[in-house]
Design brief:
- With 251 residues, the chain is α/β, with parallel strands linked by helices.
- The chain has a single domain (7-187, 219-242), classed as NAD(P)-binding Rossmann-like Domain (Rossmann fold), CATH 3.40.50.
- The chain has 8 helices and 7 strands, in the order βαβαβαβαβαβαααβ.
- The chain has helices spanning 16-27, 39-51, 66-80, 104-131, 154-174, 192-197, 201-208, 219-230; strands at residues 7-11, 31-36, 55-60, 85-88, 135-140, 179-186, 241-244.
- It has a 7-stranded parallel β-sheet, sandwiched between helices.
- Helix 2 (39-51) links the parallel strand 2 (31-36) and strand 3.
- Helix 1 packs across helix 8 (219-230), helix 3 packs parallel to helix 4 and helix 4 (104-131) packs parallel to helix 5 (154-174).
- The chain is globular, with a radius of gyration of 17 Å.
- The termini are far apart.
- Bound molecules: nicotinamide-adenine-dinucleotide (NAD).
- Nicotinamide-adenine-dinucleotide is lined by residues 11-12, 14-18, 36-38, 61-64, 89-92, 113, 117, 140, 142, 186, 188-189, 191-194.
């Protein structure tokens, strides 16, 4: 089992990419700490994981709250003794708007959850990872940080650009502590977030015309990349970007 004995904290674990990652990591032997604002949904996923005999705990976490981050990491250490892997997956999309239409309040909200939420988690994870001899941080950015900008919402793309650069700064500063940090850049993945953005068959079909492989990514496509960066398979990889987008950036 690839992650046997590792402890992994996964934000936004109550559904979609975070949920699929939590289920796979638990299957591979990790102790999973599933963190989300969706408490009922998150606890249900944890109960289902535990019913298989695997190991998981739910913690309520709004990534915007520094106190909640401290509590989540304290719970992780008191329950499992260490933190090896942090998956910063929680994120939101902004409703599409041109730059002129975007309000300052909407801009701040996207930046706060998508960027400050990652910063706060990393800030409090680094000291405990250092204590246990190292770790792996995986930040879920987006292909929108890297291209297709004509059809990209400015707030979302800028937030994911910030996450991408932040990941490299973390990699640079934390390599001496054997803490690696890499970013994943999904294209359109079949989740609640994607279905909200393209709610009908016609708009989804139009979106897929700009994806060479012609389909939305499956959750397993993304989980495979997250697992790679989180595991010892990527022991010599830090500060890297992994694009999983069906070729969308080629267009
Ligand atoms: N789905 C895609 O096509 C796609 C593409 C590129 C990048 N991404 C990124 O992947 C990540 C996961 O996306 P998804 O499609 O699974 O989204 P989703 O909306 O289905 O799930 C996001 C999860 O994050 C949680 N969350 C939101 N705000 C939070 C907060 N303040 N504190 C704690 N948890 C919070 C939600 O409750 C939810 O469980 C996001 O960072 C997203 O930007 C997704």
């Amino acid at each position: 089992m690839k992650l046997l004995g590792k402890t992994a904290l996964i934000t936004g674990g109550a559904r979609s990419i975070g949920e699929a990652t939590a289920r796979e990591f638990a299957l591979l032997g990790a102790h999973v700490v599933l963190a989300d604002v969706l408490e009922t949904e998150g606890q249900k996923v944890v109960d289902e994981i535990c019913a298989t005999g695997a190991s998981a705990t739910f913690v309520a976490l709004d990534v915007l709250s520094e106190d909640a981050w401290i509590e989540a990491i304290t719970r992780t250490i008191s329950t499992y003794g260490k933190l090896d892997i942090l998956i910063n997956n929680a994120g939101i999309v902004s409703a599409p708007a041109s730059i002129e239409e975007r309000t300052g309040e909407e801009w701040d909200r996207v930046m706060a959850i998508n960027v400050k939420g990652v910063f706060l988690g990393v800030k409090h994870a680094i000291p405990v990872m250092r204590l246990s001899g190292g770790g792996a941080i995986v930040n879920i950015s987006s292909m929108r940080a890297l291209g297709q900008f004509r059809t990209t919402d400015a707030a979302y793309a800028a937030s994911k650009g910030a996450v991408t650069v932040l990941s490299k700064v973390i990699a640079g500063q934390c390599a001496k502590d054997s803490i690696r940090c890499n970013s994943i850049h999904p294209g359109p993945i079949d989740t609640a977030m994607l279905r909200a953005a393209f709610p009908d068959a016609q708009s989804m079909q139009q979106r897929m015309q700009r994806v060479p492989l012609g389909r939305p990514g499956a959750l397993s496509d993304i989980v495979a990349g997250i697992l790679y960066f989180a595991s010892d398979d990527a022991a010599y990889t830090t500060g890297a970007e992994l694009v999983i987008d069906g070729g969308a950036l080629v267009y």
